[in-house]
Structure formats: C-alpha cells, structure tokens
Request: fold
Amino acid sequence: MGELFYARDIYGKTLAELGKKDKNLVVLDADLSGSTRTSLFAKEFPDRFFNFGVAEQNMMASAAGLASCGKTVFVSTFAMFATARVLDQVRNTITYNHFNVKIVATHAGITVGEDGSSHQALEDVAFLRALPNMNVIVPADPVEVKEVIEYVYKTPGPFYVRLGRAKTEVLDKKPNFSFNKAQVLREGKDVAIIACGIMVKEALLAYEKLKEKNITAYVINISTIKPIDKDFISSLSSKVKGMVVCEEHSIIGGLGSAVSEVVCETKPCRIERVGTKDKFGQSGDPKDLLKEYGLTSEDIVLAVQRILR
Amino acid sequence: MEQKSSDITFLTEKAKIIRRSIVEMISLAKSGHPGGSLSLADIMTCLYFSVMNHDPDNPQWTDRDRLHLSKGHACPVWYSVLAECGYFDKKHLSFLRKLGSLLQGHPDRRVPGVDVASGSLGQGLSVALGMALAGKLDKKDYTVYCIMGDGELQEGNIWEAAMAVSHFKLDNLCAIIDYNKFQIDGRVDEIMNIAPLEDKWKAFGWHVIVIDGHDIKDILRGLNEAKKFQGKPSVIIANTIKGKGVSFMENTVDFHGRAPSGDEIEAAFKELKG
Reply:
C-alpha cells in the first residue's frame, strides 16, 4: 500500500496555493475549518477567510452575495451540513442564479465512522444532483482531489465536490482528471465495474479477485457524477453483460442512479448497485462499517457473480 | 447616473405613478401581491429617485449601491421603479407572470437592475451580507440595501445573518423592514409575534432607526442617517400600511396575494388618479 493522505489536507493546501495567485478568491467555513482544512487558507489569508460560526444557511446565502459581486467563493463544512441543511439556500440562491460558488464538503459517507448516522451523509449527491446548473464531482484519490479543486476553481458556475474524512492512498491510475469524462482504469470483457470516490479502490481490488476466477472486468472511474459521461456509458453497456456501480452513498439518487438512467434510455443492460441500501448509518470503525453496509471489494465480486450467473 | 432629487412634491408624484403601475401590472397578470408592494412604494421611490447611486444605462456599474429585495413577492414595486428609472422598457410590465416574460412572479437576475433572485424568504439579509463583505474587501464605497418583510423575520436564517452582519461590522449595509403588520394568514402579532423589534435588533448589535414609511421626508431622514452611520450596520424599521394608497386594500390580508378584479380595478385607479 502506498502513502496515505487526507483528501482535505490536499484541499486546504491547494486552496492556499490558489489564494496566492488570486486575490478574488474567498473562503467560507462554518466552525469546522480545522477539520475541513480551510484553516490552511485562513492562516495565509485571514482577510479573505470568513468563519460564519455554526450557521450554514447564512453562510450559503452569503456566498451567493459575494459571488454576485464577482468573487470566486469556496464554501466548506461537513457534507451533512453542506447539503440537506442548506438545500433551499443552495437551490434558490446559488444554483438558480448560476453563481460561481464551489461547495467543497468533507466527511461524506459512512467512513465518517464513530460519529454515527447524524454525521454520515449518504444522500448528499442525490440532493444536489437534482438541482439544475449544479455540477457534482467525487474525486477518487488524493491526486484527483488536487486536479478537481484546480479545475472547479478556474471553471465558472456552481460545483459540489465531495470529500471523505479518512486517509486514502494514491491509486494506480494516471493523473488525468477530465471533467465529464469517464476514466478507464482496467479493460475487460465480461462486466464493467463503475465507481467513484473511495469505491474506486475497492473496484480495483475486485478486478484482481475476479481475474483469479477468470472473469475480466472493465474498471471505470467516474468522478463527474453530473453531468455524467452519457456517450461513454451507453457505448460501454453494449460491450458487457452487465454493470456494477459502486459508491459510498445511498443506491438512491447517486452514481448508481445516474448510470442506470443513461443505460435505460440508451442500451439497456443488467445493473447491480453497490451502495448503502436505503438505510441510515451507525457508529463504528470505518472498515467495519464498509463491511456491514456492503461496500467492499467482496461485495463487488458478489454483484458481478450475480450478473454472470 | 440617475438624477437625484429630494423634492418632496416630485417624489410624492413618482410614488403615485409607481402605485398605479403596481395595480395595473397585477390586474393584468390576474395574480400577484399588491398589499406588500404598495406598502413599499414610497420607500422604493425615495431609494431609487433620491438616495441610491445607480445607473440605469449601466446596471452592472461596479460602484453602484446594491438593493436586494428579500421579500421577493413584492417585486411589482421593484419592477415598476426599475422601469420608471429606465432599466428596461415599460412594455414588459404588461407581461408580468406570463410564460416567457422577463418579469417572473418573483425577482430573477435576467431583469436589468436585479443582481440576485429572491422569493424563498429569509435568505436576503445573507445575500446582502455577502455583497457588503465584497464591498469592504474591494474597498468600495457602495451601500447595500436589503428590504425584508415583517413576516419574513420569523425565518431563522434572518437572525443568523443579523448576528453575522454585526459581527463583521458591515456598516455599509442598511436593512429595511417593511413593518406593515400583516402576513398571509393574518396579523403578524397573532400568527407569530416578532415584537419588540427595536430591542431585538439593538441586542443583535445594530443601529436602529424607526420611520414612518409613507412620509417622504421621514424616509429620506432615515435613509440618510443610515448611510452616514459608521461602525455598525443600520436597520430601518419602517412603519407602513399594507396596501397603502388604495383604501379597500389597506390594513387587510385580503390583498396580500390576490389581484383586484372587475370593479375593484376601477375603484383602485380612481383612488390613485393623478
């Protein structure tokens, strides 16, 4: 296993670098700057960092006001408080106005771990994917986090970037993030495993396990969940017997839904969704939780076998 | 830049034009919110024709004073004033709320002079906060005006913003409360009492100014005091009358969100005649 990094460390450092070049960049947080690592920007540029305290609704609508005056605004807090709690502010005041606000949320998903269900955002992608004008990106590894932050910084419009809490390793893949483009990590014949975020690593592990069983699989990283790479998905579906779509998110409304929508409307094939099954999370060690909620490479292998059976 | 005037007769006449335009627009649309639009007619007239630095020929002028109508349902008054200033052709006023119209049922950025959409209550003071922060960062002299409804103050987001505007010492922000005492379901003090307003805003660290929202002289006094006041944000509590100017729309919830029809339209125009 390679060196481990916190995605949010990479985020904070990238923000601080961008802040050096651009005085128009402002960063907002809601009393979680130490955890989201926007503190790294705050330390360098205290005049352009605003801590809103525990008041996310105010923070989101204020971000819109700043953007209306030409600022590039990064807003951070935990995924739970950056989405459901402020959905109206994000919808009516940020996305409807098509403002240049980047919501970079950390602590998404079940691997928040011990804090339990109230802090484990498992529906955030579903909420924000439904909003017109909103773009949704879930980076797969620390390298992609930097690429994505740099991309959303230079691209006008609202973005939601979803990061986790735990450390992750650099994956065996080329660093070539391309917005709205699926990335083929492994080629195969039988099935396709499509994943985002931390599940990309599980997909790569599943690939190796399947190879031992003489099953070959495509492994695809789709970090841009919205807009989804329709052309790629529809062409892929005719090449395989089925697809397994994996995400650290509810099977309702996330990547699994996005891929299913494309496949159903273009070239239907069998789809298995690996994600949390319309359930709330609970406290526990992140690794145990991944097992408990069916989010491991083993679960992906089983899903592939169901398709091929 | 728009020509300014502090001539009381001129502003009173303008406010009358605005009121007629509001009633006409909503009558044609057959829906909309006359009550809370009419209660703002005098204040909006003073802002756009006397107090604010703005340029209808250049709506995006970076040094302009900003106005955000947090109570977006009162957009007919805003549209009337913007059209009267020349931000867009008055012919658009006839198509309020119609499919494909520039003038949506609630404010939209497509309208020249509207910087941020509104409609979902409670968010406007935060939007104004962001604009005021940007003004401080960019070392601009502009003032940001935020107009809120009284019923709207029941939204929690407003008080998050009230705390933060004062925390960030945004004395370039002036909040205006259209205190007409009515909301859709009835009297504000019966539905969910917001009083005592002065004490609440003072406790949140604001400079509080109380005015008669239909006395042009008093409105100008309040707005000028707010513009000059330094070190704290100002809030103007404007005592107003819902539906002001049309007797049968005054002090009633009936015309919060319905258009006049038939004889009512005629009667309203008769009262608002030049």
Observations:
- Chain A touches chain B at residues 26, 47-48, 50, 52-53, 55, 57-71, 88-89, 92-93, 96-97 (CB under 8 Å).
- The longest helix of chain A spans residues 7-21.
- Chain A has a mean pLDDT of 97.
- The CA atoms of residues 80 and 106 of chain A lie 9 Å apart.
